[in-house]
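> forwarded from #structure-qc
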């Protein structure tokens, strides 16, 4: 195996025997094969698209497959075997639709690919896996593009689950995948990467539309972090559609429901407030799940990543269920219903009824719900605070949390920021500072949480609105600094989206991605002013200067 797609990659270089995340060599190799097959299917679907005969089933399959390969989404080799078989059968289905003559050579080769040949290609590093690109700059750009479309696929799948789809997004994902197999120049690949950022903005806008159309606009909300008295289900991941289906199916069942990690922003939406048995948010960010799940006592449902393998001493594994693109050997999996109906959560609900209620680990409330609509409603107050000097600077600290000790930087940074600054956050990065008492400025909380990582889109809209209100030409003239923490591939697509909106001088930490070769990193530094992080004191000094 060779994988360097996330921030925690071994020694900052690459995982080669087993992932730091827990991914086995077997699963890593299956994932590489699956990604390779999505490239072939993309080429066929692009060819069919020219005759307006593209397959929706393949669009969905590619998005699902990419999501399955995102860090901490799926560790189950059997699920990947099944997906690989499905890729071959989809290829056969599409074959019948293709013209019999004048097919490009690469499609002809893909149509005759066997599983055995795929295995040989993988073993000899031919076209399958990261190391199949020998030139480190080409490899870097191809992987940056691949990780970008993996993140895009995750957001596209959430939108699709809510009934919002855009063929342009599917088409771009397929073009991007196909382009990684072509003999493109460095400049052509850079163009694709920049285009990926533009499509990221479209994808996040679509997901924002899906979420707000279905659940209303997030509003300023205090979320309980204590516990109730009944047996309960803890819902993790990002998929609001699953959460809503579960809440419907647990109405009046005597079961209470809690959110974990990235499901916290559900509480900010009006539609979720009507569920009185949605009690609050339990625990902390994804990497605390061993402790959080142990003390929760009830059933846990993963709708998306981040899953971490339970410790051998853990007692909660038999209480965990996965659904959607997620999977883990030993966890039970809830399948999609085949007839377009809601998923059937009855087994999980029955299981929850046999469990003890959650143990209390903290009490109190956290505040959030500051997505674009809520912040625009406060615009006058915000503008006044900036004009009067009460707010000197905003810090966008969106992104991810992670296990590395060095991430304590973000808690310290938040704590030591001057009191006339406001943090704009989204994603699980917020757990580094959303329970600190950072106070408010004339009623504006000093941590404004917009929501999940995809709600970084809201942060961009807020910046664009401020630019308009202050009559500025350039988004970078605003008193906004960007100090973003990344971990997995959804953060990569968020970064590309911000770059495409013209945001410059983003600081990225705790380390820069190891998949950026020195030359590719230099291009990002030169054109976008991307930088890493240093010490908290020095960084605050330079940001405030
Ligand atoms: Fe976090 Fe995990 Fe949302 Fe990611 S829970 S790390 S970028 O999956 O998607 O922010
Ligand atoms: Fe390593 Fe990250 Fe890949 Fe897991 S996802 S194998 S930790 S680089």
């Amino acid at each position: 195996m060779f994988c360097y797609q996330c921030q925690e990659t071994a020694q900052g270089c690459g995982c080669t025997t087993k992932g730091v995340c827990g991914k086995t060599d077997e699963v890593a190799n299956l994932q590489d094969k699956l990604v390779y097959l999505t490239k072939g299917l993309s080429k066929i679907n692009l060819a069919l698209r020219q005759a307006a005969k593209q397959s929706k089933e393949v669009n969905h399959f590619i998005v699902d497959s990419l999501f399955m390969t995102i860090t901490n989404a799926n560790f189950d080799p059997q699920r990947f075997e099944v997906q690989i078989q499905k890729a071959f059968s989809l290829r056969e289905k599409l074959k019948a639709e293709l013209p019999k003559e004048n097919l490009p050579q690469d499609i002809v080769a893909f149509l005759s690919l066997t599983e055995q040949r795929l295995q040989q290609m993988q073993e000899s590093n031919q076209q399958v896996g990261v190391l199949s690109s020998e030139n480190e700059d080409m490899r870097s750009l191809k992987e940056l593009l691949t990780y970008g479309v993996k993140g895009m696929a995750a957001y596209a799948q959430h939108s699709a689950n809510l009934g919002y789809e855009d063929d342009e997004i599917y088409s771009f994902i397929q073009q991007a995948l196909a382009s990684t197999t072509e003999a493109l120049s460095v400049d052509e690949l850079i163009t694709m990467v920049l285009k990926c950022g533009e499509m990221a903005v479209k994808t996040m806008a679509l997901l924002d539309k899906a979420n707000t159309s279905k659940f209303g606009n997030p509003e300023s909300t205090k979320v309980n972090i204590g516990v109730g008295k009944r047996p309960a289900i803890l819902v993790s991941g990002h998929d609001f559609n699953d959460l809503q289906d579960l809440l419907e199916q647990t109405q009046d069942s005597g079961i209470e429901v809690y959110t974990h990690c990235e499901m916290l922003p559900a509480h900010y939406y009006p539609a979720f407030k009507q569920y009185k048995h949605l009690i609050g948010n339990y625990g902390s960010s994804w990497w605390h799940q061993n402790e959080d799940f142990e003390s929760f006592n009830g059933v846990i449902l993963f709708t998306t990543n981040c899953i971490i393998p339970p410790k051998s001493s853990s007692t909660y594994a038999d209480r965990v269920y996965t659904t959607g693109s997620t999977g883990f050997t030993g966890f039970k999996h809830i399948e999609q219903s085949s007839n377009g109906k809601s998923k059937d959560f009855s087994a999980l609900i029955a299981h929850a009824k046999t469990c003890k209620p959650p143990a209390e680990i903290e009490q109190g409330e956290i505040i959030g719900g500051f997505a674009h609509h809520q912040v625009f409603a406060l615009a006058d107050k915000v503008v006044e605070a900036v004009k009067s000097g009460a707010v000197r600077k905003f810090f966008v600290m969106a992104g991810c949390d992670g296990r590395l000790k060095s991430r304590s930087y973000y808690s310290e940074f938040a704590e030591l920021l001057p009191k006339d600054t406001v943090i704009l956050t989204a994603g699980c990065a917020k757990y580094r500072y959303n329970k600190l008492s950072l106070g408010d400025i004339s009623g504006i909380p000093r941590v404004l949480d917009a929501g999940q990582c995809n709600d970084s889109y809201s942060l961009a809209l807020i910046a664009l609105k401020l630019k308009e209100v202050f009559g500025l030409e350039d988004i970078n003239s605003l008193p906004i600094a960007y100090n973003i923490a990344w971990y997995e591939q959804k953060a990569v697509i968020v970064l590309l989206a911000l770059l495409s909106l013209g945001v410059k001088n983003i600081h990225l930490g705790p380390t820069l991605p190891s998949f950026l070769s020195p030359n590719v990193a230099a291009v990002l530094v030169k054109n976008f002013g991307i930088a890493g992080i240093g010490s908290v004191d020095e960084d605050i000094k330079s940001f405030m200067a």
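QC bot note: The chain has three domains: 10-197, 221-352, 369-544. DSSP finds 19 helices and 15 strands in the chain.
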